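ok trying again, last paste got cut off:
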Amino acid sequence: MHEATGNQLETLLADGGACRNDWLMQFQADLLDRPVLRCRTLELSALGAAFAAGLGCGLWRSTDDIAGIVSAHDTFRPQLAVSERRRLGQRWNAAVASVKAFAPAAGSPGTPGGELLAARGVTDVASNAPPNETGK
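nice, full thing came through this time. structure:
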């Protein structure tokens, strides 16, 4: 993440359905070598929408009024040895590279969902680059 953003990640805040998996949360903490905080309110997107609606209709005056409503976090702290973290990180990077190398161009005959991707302007599923202005 540091390479992608240029910012140092201190802590990962996680929410959503996958957060129910304690093993996944611990694995992320181990691989990132950073604490992972999981809000005990797992569906924060819905809660955020409710907060926005409450702010909009005047139920709360500011975000300060709702700051204490969100429940506490469960914390997952890194536990892996440095050598094991490096080994697993290298395997992860190799797996991502192999998937990118395998991915066919969107819209190729016989590509599952290829026509749909092409219709949405996605021309290269192996690239992380966003479509340009022309949608290609």
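cool. The two ends are 26 Å apart (CA to CA). Confidence is low (pLDDT under 50) at residues 128-136.
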